[in-house]
Amino acid sequence: MWRRSGYLTSVNSQARTILITGASSGIGRAVALTAAEGGDHVTLVARNDAALKHTARLCESAGAASATVSVADVGADDAVARCINDAVARHGHLDAVVHCAAVIAYGRTEDIPTGVFDRVLQTNLHGSINVARHAVRQLRQQRRGTLVLVGSVAGHITSPQISPYVITKWGVRALARQLQIENRDLDEVDIAYVAPGGVDTPIYAQGANYLGFAGRPPPPIASPERVAHMVLKRVDKGRGRTQTTLANQAMRLGFTLVPRVFDALAGPMFRMVLTDRTTAVEPNTGNVFESQGSEERVHGGNGNPWAAIVKNMVAAVKDGR
Ligand SMILES: NC(=O)c1ccc[n+]([C@@H]2O[C@H](COP(=O)([O-])OP(=O)(O)OC[C@H]3O[C@@H](n4cnc5c(N)ncnc54)[C@H](OP(=O)(O)O)[C@@H]3O)[C@@H](O)[C@H]2O)c1
């Protein structure tokens, strides 16, 4: 029977089949491990075979009914189709698809190389569309199941120096709303959307960088596990709460109600709050074109955000900026 409540009280006789993209790192890995603790079948999708196999072993130890690795670049439509078809062939159906895979690139719009900019669009936007296309087709065919798209508060506001990320996250939010309208006819098919704020994951260190210094998550910083629970609640309950923190709501409100004030604050806030100006970074493509297996883990080790802000302020005073 289709089960909609008590995620952590799930038992193996009711094990669900959940396909998770971006499952080798950060929020996606935390979703996989939490689902595994609930005794579900998990299919783990990302580009790095070794990191996925490591995640699969962790899921099996945590109690997964099964953990299967499915290597794919979500930017490639045929690869996404293969992952979903393989999971359906293995389990007969899919209860949920949780789409977390994404990359970030730092730098001014005109400074990020064209290839890097375009690849972020390919992964984050086309990847989300590819996953949605094949997931929704399957969910509609079986007339039940949930697609959870993980967006970002960046899809509700703007921020300097991360244009490709912001553009794609606005797109993911639009995609979620489109799908919600298109799938209203089937009661048991749900399209959910979750927009985290700052989360302590490796995405900031893994991203491409043309800023000259490191990026970091804004406070309040949530744990990947907390976001994973929110995501899996949407698997249980379908469409519902989208923002992970009150700070997200405050940012959205400021962006909408007082745009000029928001714009005036966005630059200084980015410099002081969203970067680590004390850590120099050479221009690099990060994990945009290829997985960085060594960085694949749940937590980013981004440290105390308030201490980082103070360090940035001291550096700014010293530099006379
Ligand atoms: N961390 C935050 O503060 C934060 C805030 C708001 C929203 N989010 C969103 O949360 C989601 C997860 O982010 P995260 O912070 O957990 O990131 P992360 O730790 O960097 O993990 C990203 C995952 O995506 C996979 N991936 C990247 N490119 C891929 C591709 N082309 N095809 C398939 N898999 C790919 C990575 O594995 P491989 O590199 O091995 O492929 C990895 O498993 C993203 O949608 C992000 O935008 C995060």
Write the layout of secondary structure elements.
Elements: E1 17-21, H1 26-37, E2 41-46, H2 49-62, E3 66-71, H3 77-91, E4 96-99, E5 105-106, H4 114-142, E6 145-150, H5 163-182, E7 189-194, H6 203-206, E8 208-209, E9 213-215, H7 224-237, H8 246-257, H9 259-273, E10 275-280, H10 305-319
Parallel strand pairs: 1-2, 1-4, 2-3, 4-6, 5-8, 6-7
Antiparallel strand pairs: 9-10
Helix pairs in contact: 1-2, 1-7, 3-4, 4-5, 8-9
Bound molecules: NADP nicotinamide-adenine-dinucleotide phosphate.
What's a quick, concise take on this entry?
47% of the residues lie in helices and 14% in strands. The protein is of the alpha/beta class and 321 residues long. The longest helix is centred in the middle third of the chain and has 29 residues, at 114-142.
